[in-house]
Amino acid sequence: MKHASNHTTNLTRESLAAAALAIPEGEPFVMLNLLRYKEHAEYRDGPGLGPCTGREAYHRGYVATFTKLAEGIPIQIEWLGAVLAGLVAPAGERWDELVLVRYPDYATFRRIVESDRYEAEAAPHRRASLDDWRLLATTKLG
Fold first, then answer.
1. Domain holding 17: CATH number?
2. Where are the alpha helices (DSSP H) in 4-113?
3. Residue 26 lies in domain
4. Tens digit of pLDDT for each residue in 89-116?
5. Structurally, how many domains does the chain consist of?
């Protein structure tokens, strides 16, 4: 069951600015990514990887490009895992993978995702690959 009104794959300047008010400046944080892939990648805004699944487009296209854009920046993947089941979740809600990524600070994250290179080189793969996405900034308690 799909809940189309709740689907999003957009990262907006407004959401980035609003998050800056909540995320402590200069502090490391961990980004939780919840990923639901399209069955087949849909490259509507430029050349893509050719026929492939959404998962393939995400990992071969988006992750590979994001890694190049973040070269030299101390970003660390803390966890990449397949979602097996939702034990407490709305009926029909499904996620394929989750990723936990540690960033040195929010300003660094913003510099990457607000860059022209990110929009031109990485974002097309994200839009082609994901059916739905959640991006949640987190910090360790205590």
1. 3.30.70.100
2. 13-22, 54-56, 64-69, 106-113
3. 4-138
4. 999 899 999 999 999 999 999 999 999 9
5. 1
